[in-house]
Amino acid sequence: MSTVDIATTPSGSQRSVETLVSKLRRRQVVGSRDAALETVLVLRQVVSKARFSNIDQLVAIIRSVGRRLVDAQPKEHSVGNTVRKVLHHIREEYNTASKGTAASSSKVTYTISNFVLQGQPRKQTVAPKSEAIITLKENDPDDPDSFSRALKPVLMEAIQDVLDELETVYDNVSKNAKDHIHSDEIILTIGHSRTVESFLKQAAHYRSYTVIVAETGPSYKGHEMAQSLSAAGISTFLVPDSSIYAIMSRVNKVIIGAHAILANGGMFAITGSLLAATAARVHSTPVVVCAGQFKFTPLWNLYHDFGALDFADPSSVLGFEEGSLVDNVDVLNPYYDYVGPELVDVFITNDGDHPPSSVYRLIKESYDDDDHEL
Amino acid sequence: MAPAPSLPVHPPNGPTQAPADASAPPQQRSQKQMTKAERRELQEAQRAAKAAAKANAAPNGAGGQSKQPPKAAPPPLTAAARKPGKLADPVLKAPSTPGTGRQAHARGAPPVAESGPPNARGLRIFSHFGLPKPVSVAKGDIHPTILRLALQFSNFKITGANARCIATLNAFKTVIQEYVTPPNNTLSRHLMTHLNPQISHLVAARPMSVTMGNAIRQLKLEISRMDIDLPEQDAKDALCQKIDNYIRDRIIIADQVIEETATRKIKDGDVILTFARSSVVQKVILGAMEEGRQFSVIVVDSRPMLEGKRLLSVLSSAGIQCTYVLLPALGSVISEVSLVLLGAHSIHANGAVYSRAGTALAAMMAKRHSVPVIVCCETYKYSDTVQLDSFTKNELAPTTDNFSSFPLVKSRDALLIQNQINLEILNPLYDLTPPTSITAVVTEVGVIPPNSISSIPVALGRLL
């Protein structure tokens, strides 16, 4: 498997991979959705130009590309998630095409999760892309490209599916927004999450309510959120994060966004989310998290790692204008908080609403076990 | 009062009035030919027109619902609200008076009023928060010391419960020394009336703190107990001596006792967390430093006041190892903390602590991680009211001058966020920490668990 490496990745797509790698390393790609979109586009190019004669070679190509992308920016989990999702779709398409059955996996293992999955009426497989059964000749010595030629159109459609899902994330998450918010509610949100923003704006078409935005220091992203919401006609309050506990007794719901959702149901979210979620738990206020499916990560023990919370520039906390202090004082500026699954009540995703306890099942359905470690 | 105008959407005379409305002057039949009802309507219309003309001259009748873009409809609406029973016609007639001919708006005015209050309802629950008012022209003759003090309060140059109380008492000492009892009056009776406008001026600058309130109440008690026969200068000196004693006993010495008690709670190797800046906590930490304990401090700070920076500079220049974080980062550092020290603005009979906004969050997070929370508080901060949440009594910080509290890395135009339509900026200064989040309160009469706070007056021998 290691013989098939970047050497077989054609140079055109290699360039695009390198571009994305350097963009990720320099943090020029900001935001989990943008990172996921760029990853899908790069993978589409890689697959379209790749040359492979059996499925394992293709998987190895994609995994090596994915490993490079993830190593460039390990804190941006949506990159790895997208790679895993593409791999999952590719394997499914391959299984459908080669077997012609609706079996989602070639091996049948007797595990609790399979047992549980069998009872679920949820979508188990993607509908077969092609009606005709493609005859796939793997490792054909005469015509090594026949396999890839036959399979590629189907794969490109699968990747296009992933791309479409990413592009319509905001609309799908906001679909049932008006069912979650009733009139005259007071909602608390923190920072600037575009998913939450579209969710609230969609609900504002049907309901009139108030939003309190906690600017979260030191990025103060809440300011942009407050301006955007008030421009959309929602009555908004902007408060500093010190007053989150003070106003929590009047807040009906806390709606926040996530950066990455871990397999145990916990999540990484912008700093201040832990304060808001804990204060909400103390006041028995429901905590709702709006996130796209691409944020679900199969890893879960990341929060033990102190460095897992990305750190940002300390000069926004204590700048060099306080020169005498800067020498003697340690300054911390974590960018994310880890919020445990016991603090979140529901995840609203483009695929429906899920409680934190069923996140592990979603992850099992969306990704393949082999891909947890790229 | 405001919802009332919205009720008669179809006023009893509506259907007949509306068409008459459309053609601006109704058919001018002579008075004799008009029916009695029509004559009455005409009378009411003329009366309403006069009221509307007056209301348009003073369009400030909108009151708290000023969030809506002011149309001609709301001001005549609220002016009409003051004349109950004549709501129907003014609603329809008034807009035609300014001659704009917005008949459609006139009929739309009741529904507008309906959507007005609900739109403003979310904004109204915060309307009681005391907004800082500019210090107005002093009424009566206010002593210049008090004038200066009021300016310092309103510009937040003097902040903190202890600092404000000491400054107030010192200012009153000056006022008392310069006071002259008018003839046919006794000091014990007239001095009180002399002081009252000064006190009101201070309250107008910034709402009074509980410490100031307790101190002033004690002062008034002392004044009323003054012996009538004492010569004036002796009485004044005695009063100033009493003020000095109060400051010394209830604040200075109390702080020393608290410092000694709380320092015993700090062990070597501790990581102490504190929020914003409390003068008592600063003394405790410096005292522990002088005793040679080895510990480090995490200072948590937050907008709008960002007072933690002052504490940080004092502690780090004393040689203590400090870490500085903003409040949202609290979740990341709390696992390292062994003790949380907090100050208070006031403590209440149920054990709740009213303190700088953000203290409740620090106490809550600490409690969840089983870190002891100690509140250092003098007994004169005790208030026998019971406060249940941070809403009933709070104060807002002025939203101007944001530049000093934001990091320089943010561009200036990003910081020029102001109240716009649909957007309001609130900076509450205080919040209430419930007694469940507090482990112990250290006062000069001992270390008390939060649910026994109401025993403080008993412990002091009813001095309060």
UniProtKB/TrEMBL annotation, chain A:
It is found in: Cytoplasm, Cytosol. Component of the translation initiation factor 2B (eIF2B) complex which is a heterodecamer of two sets of five different subunits: alpha, beta, gamma, delta and epsilon. Subunits alpha, beta and delta comprise a regulatory subcomplex and subunits epsilon and gamma comprise a catalytic subcomplex. Within the complex, the hexameric regulatory complex resides at the center, with the two heterodimeric catalytic subcomplexes bound on opposite sides. Belongs to the eIF-2B alpha/beta/delta subunits family. Its main location: cytoplasm. This is Translation initiation factor eIF2B subunit beta. GO terms for molecular function: guanyl-nucleotide exchange factor activity; translation initiation factor activity. It holds the Pfam family IF-2B. Keywords: Cytoplasm, Initiation factor, Protein biosynthesis. One of its GO terms (cellular component) is eukaryotic translation initiation factor 2B complex. InterPro entries: eIF2B_beta_subunit (IPR051855), IF-2B-related (IPR000649), IF_2B-like_C (IPR042529), NagB/RpiA_transferase-like (IPR037171).
From TrEMBL, chain B:
Residues 35-44 have a biased composition (Basic and acidic residues). Residues 15-31, 45-70 have a biased composition (Low complexity). Residues 1-14 have a biased composition (Pro residues). The keyword Iron does not apply. The keyword Protein biosynthesis applies. Keywords: Cytoplasm, Initiation factor, Protein biosynthesis. Gene3D superfamilies: Translation initiation factor eif-2b, domain 2 (3.40.50.10470). It is found in: Cytoplasm, Cytosol. Component of the translation initiation factor 2B (eIF2B) complex which is a heterodecamer of two sets of five different subunits: alpha, beta, gamma, delta and epsilon. Subunits alpha, beta and delta comprise a regulatory subcomplex and subunits epsilon and gamma comprise a catalytic subcomplex. Within the complex, the hexameric regulatory complex resides at the center, with the two heterodimeric catalytic subcomplexes bound on opposite sides. PANTHER family: TRANSLATION INITIATION FACTOR EIF-2B, TRANSLATION INITIATION FACTOR EIF-2B SUBUNIT DELTA. This is Translation initiation factor eIF2B subunit delta. It comes from Cristinia sonorae.
